[in-house]
Design a protein that fits this description.
By secondary structure, this protein is of the alpha/beta class. The chain is built from 14 helices and eleven strands. The chain has two domains: about 120 residues, Enolase-like, N-terminal domain (Enolase-like, domain 1), CATH 3.30.390; about 220 residues, Alpha-Beta Barrel (TIM Barrel). Helix content is about 40%, strand content about 20%. β2 and β3 form a beta hairpin.
Length: about 375
């Protein structure tokens, strides 16, 4: 079995379902990669947040020729060959977005070849994953709307919630962020798990103040609290607060630094940004060696659920509502959270097959 075709497409303006109480966004964009074998097996991969039209061009013009004629089941060999060939000294978003999509599509082919879902091939640790809802954006919701949407997700059976913090969301600073966390705790009750995510948009002192102000509200974890995921700053922050810290995604080579500096309570591998399932397995194993659980934090939940169901230290899965709706706009069958849990699919491969004609209809032609 050999790879005969590799083609990435960028889909623009795909109709989607807006968040509760909102009319926008009602459209979304996504890269979709297709890898085909000589005997007709098709592997698909949605691109993560790092996958842009530039990534599409890089795959089609640079990486595709290196894949044609390769055995798609030799994923570890292909992953390492691509890494050595295209990334000897750098780790850019274009490169890692391309590698991630290629790896995911190859695992999709592997699953279809052996008639097994990818999560079972990755280890099959569990068939049901707890999910949390990320809500209240974009743009940042006023406090009243934030609480209303949180109550909506609670009415759908969710007990885990994540809210975005940090000045990039137009809040005035840690004090206002903490007031929003307090309002959520009061609205959702003591049983709810509440998480925060600053997208690396806070300084050490700002993050520390927010942690101290939020400690009474029993925050489950604070994701990417400081600029650049600085491991030393996070290690210092972790010593000064009882709020657990989480980080990872998009920074594969920084995981070692986060672990060696005792900087996190959760690692967050994201297969759509870190190098696919092949990299995700390595990161999960590193975390397990340090007795650290992994907790998903990215909009690519339907893809990542295979990793989090596959490994023993897999934790919660993120339902980023807006991004999940883009998946539902592009693919025929997308796993749906029910009462705050997601069942791992039994379909062969990743289980994400594009809707008929969706690529042709929404493909953005290269300029």
């Amino acid at each position: 079995m050999k790879i005969s075709r590799v083609e990435a497409s960028y889909l623009a303006n795909v109709p989607t379902t807006p968040p509760p109480y909102r009319k926008e966004p009602s459209k979304g964009n996504m890269m979709v990669l297709e890898i085909e074998t000589e005997d007709g097996l098709l592997g698909y991969a949605p691109g993560g947040v790092l996958a842009t039209p530039t990534t599409v061009g890089f795959i089609n013009k640079q990486m595709a020729p290196a894949l044609i004629g390769q055995d798609p089941l030799l994923i570890e060999r292909i992953w390492n060959e691509l890494t050595l060939r295209f990334m000897p000294r750098a780790y850019s978003s274009v490169w890692v977005g391309a590698l991630s999509a290629i790896d995911i599509a190859l695992w999709d082919i592997r699953g279809k070849c052996f008639n097994q879902p990818v999560w079972k091939l990755l280890g099959g640790a569990r068939s049901k994953i707890p999910a949390y809802a990320t809500f209240g954006l974009p743009p940042i919701y006023p406090l009243e709307e934030l609480v209303a949407e949180a109550k909506y997700f609670a009415s759908q059976g969710y007990e885990r919630f994540k809210v975005n913090v940090g000045r990039f969301t137009h809040t005035q600073g840690p004090d206002e962020d903490a007031s929003r966390v307090k309002a959520l705790r009061e609205a959702l009750g003591d049983r709810a798990q509440i998480m925060m995510d600053s997208f690396c948009h806070m300084s050490g002192p700002e993050a520390l103040r927010l942690c101290k102000l939020s400690e009474p509200y029993n925050v489950t974890f604070f994701e990417e609290p400081v600029y650049n995921d600085d491991a030393k700053v996070m290690a210092d922050l972790r010593k000064r607060t009882s709020v657990p810290l989480a980080s990872g995604q998009t920074h594969q080579w920084s995981y070692v630094q986060l672990l060696m500096n005792d900087a996190v309570d959760y690692l967050q591998p994201n297969v759509a940004n870190d190098g696919g399932y092949t990299a995700g397995l390595k990161i999960a194993a590193m975390a397990q060696a340090f007795n650290i659980p992994i907790a998903h934090g990215n909009g690519s939940g339907p893809t990542n659920l295979h990793l989090y169901a596959g490994v023993a230290n897999g934790g919660v899965l993120e339902l980023h509502y807006i991004n999940w709706m883009v998946y539902e706009g592009v693919f025929k069958s997308v796993p749906k959270p029910l009462n705050g849990w997601v069942e791992a699919p039994e379909a062969s491969g990743v289980g994400l097959e594009p809707k008929e004609g969706i690529i042709r209809e929404h493909r953005q032609e290269a300029t």
